[in-house]
Amino acid sequence: MTKKKYSPQEEQTNTASEPIAAYQYASAPVPGKITVNIDDMSKLKDIKRAICMIRGVVSVEKSPAMKSYERARADVEAGRVIECNSKEEFFRLLNL
Known about the structure:
By secondary structure, this protein is mainly α. It is built from 4 helices and 2 strands; from the N terminus they run βαβααα. The chain has helices at 8-13, 44-52, 68-78, 87-93; strands spanning 2-3, 25-26. Strands 1-2 form a two-stranded antiparallel sheet. The longest helix is centred in the last third of the chain and has 11 residues, at 68-78. The relative contact order is 0.08. The mean pLDDT is 77.
C-alpha cells in the first residue's frame, strides 16, 4: 500500500460536517490461489483452457493427487489421529 502524505491544507478546507481524510491508501492487488478438485481427469485440458480465459488468471498448474497412504501420513503428522485400545473406547470418544 502506498500512503498519501498528510496535508494540513486539506484539514482546513473541510467543514466540520465532512470527515477529514488524513491518509488515503491505494490498494495493490494481492495475489491469490484457488484449488479446483475434479473427478474426471479426461476433462482437465478443457477446464484448464476455460480457467485461462478468465481475466486476471496468471497461471494454471496441475498437481498430482495425494495417495491414500500420503493423506494418512499427513494426518498423523498434523495430529489428526487418535489411538484407542478397544472399539468401546472409540465409541465413547465419539459419544455414541
